[in-house]
Specification:
Layout (H helix, E strand, L loop, with lengths): L3 H16 L16 E3 L5 E4 L12 H14 L7 H4 L3 H13 L4 E5 L2 H12 L5 E5 L4 H8 L4 E5 L4 H10 L6 E6 L11 H10 L3 E5 L14 H4 L8 E5 L10 E5 L1 H10 L1 H5 L5 H16 L2 H19 L11 E5 L3 H13 L2 E2 L1 E3 L10 E5 L6 H15 L5
Length: about 400
């Protein structure tokens, strides 16, 4: 029972979050996900905070595939994979994602969070070591907490520090370097070439979470490894279907057949979670097949990114030169970030402020995310709004 003292403690904690501008409000959307969305005030807003990078979240073909899946394969599986939860389409999707990323095999999870939660515990034991970038996503951090391996955390993209840690762990059995392919809060890519070189020199494996890279980076949208000319060379890749590939739900791990087969037998979230529902699986197969045939949406996304970054440069807003759909605008304080978010909303633009603990204390920001669904007019509207705000305020 929640007693009065405990209740007061949690209420005070919530009040402190609000006072520090760290309280996260959940915005109710009254429309489909898309470039423009209708919010609870019944007004339309340009959506610059979605992971819907290719504009597929409300894609008509995906809707048709979803309905077809319900009719042919049913609504849900009511089982885990190894009992009676594997349909032919589950196997087909696993083959498609492995083929798309030039890997040998893959397996599906209910989310990428589950994929990362189930990977490290299964692969690593007390005699092993894991090396993680300090800005890796929360799901990687939580996954690492579950394993018994010796843990090393290196400074963001600091290869000299990583090399020193690999030397310190020379007597461990399995060494696994893990990093985001694209870091979700700043859009930076991991230095894969250097990571792979260090891994080779120190007999280590490399695993990347490419949730924000797949569908965005590379000429054909195959992610960070393609963008850095390392397609098919990374040992393990985890990712999500909840972003560029349609935005619905689900995750995966792909890589060497032996590692995937071992995970299929030992990864707890895979073994003990229900199979992905057929209405999610079937549209993803279509999406991957379409991406293999056409780069049109990926090319449009890249054009939008270039156009927007050119406009920000004109406004003297500092940005990372690397080309990604995640574009953070850094602010001096959490309060400033929240103010910028509110001012953009007044200009019909939805963009969310981020502060500690989501990002480091010294780097509050408003994160803008571009989509292939945006038009030139949408981008122009955003740049005009930022120009108007910056003439009256500082970030």
């Amino acid at each position: 029972m929640l007693d009065k003292e405990t209740n007061s403690y949690f209420k005070e904690s919530i009040a402190n979050l609000k006072k520090a501008s760290l309280y996260k409000h959940e915005e109710e959307i009254l429309s489909q996900q898309g470039a423009w969305v209708t919010l609870s005030d019944k007004q339309k807003y340009l959506n610059l905070c979605s992971n819907n990078y290719l504009g597929l979240a409300a894609d008509e073909q995906s809707k048709k595939s979803c309905l077809k899946a319900v009719k042919q394969w049913g609504y849900g599986m009511a089982s885990v994979r190894f009992i009676c939860g594997t349909q032919r389409i589950h196997k087909e999707l696993e083959q498609e994602i492995a083929s798309f990323l030039h890997c040998e095999d893959s397996l599906l999870y209910s989310s990428c969070y589950d994929a990362n939660a189930g990977l490290f515990e299964a692969l690593l034991g007390a005699n092993d070591a894991i090396f993680s970038d300090e800005l890796n996503h929360a799901c990687i951090i939580d996954g690492i907490r579950l394993c018994k391996a010796k843990r090393y955390r290196y400074k963001h993209r600091n290869m000299a520090m990583l090399e020193q840690q690999l030397k310190e762990a020379k007597n461990t059995k399995i060494k696994l370097i893990v990093t985001d392919g694209v870091f979700s809060m700043n859009g930076q890519q991991a230095p894969l070439s250097k990571l792979m070189s260090l891994a080779k020199n120190h007999n280590a494996l490399v695993m990347i979470d490419d949730s924000h890279g797949i569908g965005v980076l590379g000429n054909t949208g195959r992610g960070t490894s393609e963008a850095q000319n390392l397609l098919g060379q990374v040992d393990l890749i985890s990712g999500t279907f909840g972003k560029a590939l349609g935005g619905a739900s689900g995750g995966f791990v792909t890589g060497h057949h032996t590692l995937i087969e071992y995970l299929r037998q030992t990864s707890r979230p895979y073994l003990f979670s229900n199979s992905l529902a057929p209405p999610l699986v079937y549209p993803l197969i279509d999406t991957l097949k379409q991406l293999k045939k056409s780069n049109k949406k990926i090319e449009q996304l890249q054009k939008n990114i270039s156009l927007f970054k050119d406009g920000l440069t004109t406004l003297s807003i500092s940005i990372d030169p690397n080309c990604h759909a995640i574009i953070p605008i850094f602010c001096k304080s959490a309060k400033n970030a929240l103010t910028l978010s509110k001012q953009l909303r007044q200009q019909q633009i939805l963009a969310i402020a981020f502060a500690y603990p989501v990002v480091p204390k010294e780097t509050p920001r408003v994160r803008l995310q571009l989509s292939a669904a945006l038009t030139k007019q949408d981008i122009s509207l955003t740049l005009s709004a930022l120009k108007k705000i910056l003439t009256k305020n500082t970030l």
